[in-house]
Amino acid sequence: MTTAPVPSLRPSTVTGLSCRECGSKYPKSPIHVCEMCFGPLEIAYDYAAIGKLLTRAVIESRPHNMWRYAELLPLDAPPVVGTQTGMTPLVRADRLAKRLGVREVWIKNDSVSHPTLSFKDRVVSVAVSKAIEFGIGTVACASTGNLANATAAQAAAAGLPAVILIPFDLEPAKVLATSIYGARVVGVKGTYDDVNRLCSEIAGKYGWGFVNVNLRPFYAEGSKSFGYEICEQLGWRTPANIVVPMAGGSLVTKIGKAFGEMEKLGLLAAGGNRKTKIHGAQAAGCSPIVDMVLENRDQVKPVKTPTSIAKSLAIGNPADGFYARQTITGSGGYAGKPNDDEIVAAMRLLAETEGIFTETAGGVTLGATIKLLQEGRIGKDDGPLVVCITGNGMKTQDPLVGKLPTPELIGPSLADFDRLQASAQ
Amino acid sequence: MPNIRIPTPLRKLTNGKEEVAATGATIGALIANLETQYPGIKERICDESGQVRRFVNIFANDEDIRFLKNLDTPVKDSDEISIVPAIAGGR
């Protein structure tokens, strides 16, 4: 990995914030909700200016990290943290493809993301760097784990104090991997949605930079780099199908936006727009967005008590649900919701065929992919199928306990081993 | 009278107050009463058809009113009502 500096920025390509619902305009500031209609605020870019600055050759000349697309990310100064984040491997998964009976499968592997092994490193790199631009003194987040790890790590790297609010019953590994960075961790006796709601009230009161609350418009844009990289790594082409895990529904929406921007800016190769079908994945135990697609609704019906082992996707009331469903159905995609057994089976399948150990959310994504293939929603000969793996299995080992073979036990002698081998045959 | 917690984006209408009191037997009635005290606040919470906007969550004693009876949810004087912008993300 190169350590060359990221491109220093030219005049900002961001013109301000605009409401996705009513179009009201706001200056760049740490706000995320439209004062007029409560709609979500989005970054407004000067695409004409970006088009003049950004070509495939310019991007290819830059270091291999997410900042090679800097003009399409909402910073006005070079990033302070996460300068080496992004450009994770896109792995050609032929052994998995064979098992699935599909011609061409790729794994976009953010389970090896720098520095905290999930795609949240991308969004937090943007959010913490932006917090510093805004002069914010403390960063914070509501999290089900991966975001907590990423925020605590990047805050430490920036020398900022971090306050992390989590549901009290998170996996111990995720709690530990947050506390290690010196962050203050507050466990809340409630679900993720309770934590989220509390954070939106704290953000208003204490003036902290909550990466996924008042910094959300900036933070969420970081997810687009996941989509740009997939296009570039496929030779400046979009895939035929992509399956994306969904919690709040932001990533799937931003991948759709990324593909659209690549097309709009002429960054795709000739014939490189495969009109990607974008599919969404959630666990059966918490599937409010998948159910919107399956039942053809545009209103979220919140899930009050998520029950899945995929805690990192357990958002019962996803505010981006409306846009996520719009992205999916607008692309001709569909959605799937594997149950806990299917999630574990998919985690094992990915590990055994490709040597990639993903967290439960990755099992959800591959489990949903299998369902979509069985249902014919994804054709076996459609062309490149990308499965988005966004987190690392080392963080969520609990659901696997008792489901894998235990080690065979022998004494330290060749005779013991010979006996074991003989009995195994 | 039930107390209603007001989110930052609406405090310009409540003269900066984080918490206000309103009268009414249901959430819908409370919002109507709020409108008489702070003109303009109802259209920020409800859309043209009178339903709670897509990106607004209202909680009655920590319970999302979508799980109760929406605007018809009954309220008592001791109830704590919160209006909270919907947000997502996390993980």
Overall description:
The complex is a heterodimer of chains A (425) and B (91). Chain A is α/β, with parallel strands linked by helices and 425 residues long. Chain A is built from 15 helices and 13 strands. Chain A folds into two domains: 14-84 and 120-219, Rossmann fold, CATH 3.40.50; 90-115 and 223-400, 3-Layer(aba) Sandwich (Rossmann fold). Helices cover 37% and strands 13% of the residues of chain A. In chain A, helix 10 links the parallel strand 10 and strand 11. Chain A is globular and about 75 Å long. Residues 1-6 of chain A have low confidence and may be disordered. Chain B is an alpha+beta fold and 91 residues long. Chain B has a single domain, classed as Ubiquitin-like (UB roll) (Roll). In chain B, a hairpin with a 2-residue loop joins strand 3 (56-60) and strand 4 (63-64). Chain B is globular. The model of chain B has no long low-confidence stretch (mean pLDDT 87). The chains are: A alpha/beta (425), B alpha+beta (91). The interface between A and B is large, with 51 and 27 residues.
- Structural class by helix and strand composition of chain B: alpha+beta
Instruction: Please work out how many helical segments of chain B DSSP would assign.
Output: 2
Q: Superfamily at the CATH H level of chain B? A: Beta-grasp domain
Oligomeric state of this protein: heterodimer
CATH overall fold name of the largest domain in chain A: Rossmann fold
Q: Which percent range fits the helix content of chain B? A: 10-25%
Radius of gyration of chain A: 21 Å
Question: Biggest interface: chains and residue counts?
Answer: A-B, 51 and 27 residues
